[in-house]
């Protein structure tokens, strides 16, 4: 680690994003911490004092309503709120280098819960239907994985953040709005796909979402999904969907807990892991949705047991907000979290 760092620091580094928080919300939470750090603050810019006035250079603000003391931050590929793991972050001029992480190889680990599909393909959605899982075992999952390896075609799920005419697909879904044009299937590559473990229901605590789509909402979802999968711009008629749909059988053991499977994969950019788990459930003659998703690698950044986690950074942020004096500056004047970040970042 260099004894001194160029400031303001333009660097790429990765955070271990916790589950349950959107990627940009995490960056917004870290903004006050980074803005107060000498690592990222531009010493040539006037800083705002406690009264809200600018010091130096006439004390002017950088434009009406603008906070030019904020650090420029961005992320190289968002993670769903449910997901955790590697989130690549860029600061200052290094934000220009984030685009290369949108088109790079990624690694994930995902846990799928068998016997239930949801509208979002994960546990944060609502139950669409429950199915029997008789015959689903380790061997059947191993056998089914073969069809998802290599180059495959995927159509983005209707509840995805993919934008069309500036609006995410999930907004079209929530308002039952016809798509302005068809969504073409995209070719993605699954370089490796492996079953890590298969666990019977008695050996885990995962459960189906409590909320269930009512019948009208379920029918509307089926119509939208049919529209997306067939590349149509108009919403198909209800009777057309009903004729093509076969109701899935309800489990004959409603009190039993279904099994889970955990898979790990290396995939190309643009691969929808939730779709793989959803489609794998169908290939097993049942259903499945994601209950845990972790991005373990993105480009050159790999998830390891972190010495300085996001929780540690937030703890420093809370100390700053509460006025607590933060000890631990080294001979160069860096705090512990700043030293840790310097040892892991890639200066650009």
3D structure, described in words:
- Residues 71-198 form the Pseudouridine synthase II N-terminal domain.
- One of its GO terms (biological process) is tRNA modification.
- The protein is built from eight helices and 14 strands.
- With 348 residues, the protein is of the alpha+beta class.
- It has two domains: 11-104 and 301-347, no CATH class; 106-298, 2-Layer Sandwich (Pseudouridine synthase), CATH 3.30.2350.
- A hairpin with a 2-residue loop joins strand 12 and strand 13.
- Mean pLDDT is 80; it is low at 56-66 and 232-254.
What descriptive keywords fit this protein?
single chain; about 350 residues; alpha+beta; Pseudouridine synthase; two-stranded antiparallel sheet; 14 strands; about 25% helix; PsdUridine_synth_cat_dom_sf; EC 5.4.99.25; RNA binding
Distance between the termini: 15 Å
- By CATH's scheme, which homologous superfamily of the largest domain applies? Pseudouridine synthase
- Helical amount: 10-25%
> Beta fraction of the residues?
15-25%
Radius of gyration: 24 Å
Q: What's the oligomerization state?
A: single chain
The top level CATH class name of the largest domain: Alpha Beta
Structural class per helix/strand content?
alpha+beta
**Number of DSSP-assigned strands:** 14
The biggest sheet, with number of strands, parallel, antiparallel or mixed sense and barrel status, is:
10 strands, mixed
SSE string: EHEEEEEHEEEHEHHEHEEHHE
Number of domain units: 2
Instruction: Specify the overall morphology.
Output: globular
Number of helices: 8
Which spans of ≥5 residues are poorly predicted at pLDDT below 50? 56-66, 232-254
CATH architecture classification of the largest domain? 2-Layer Sandwich
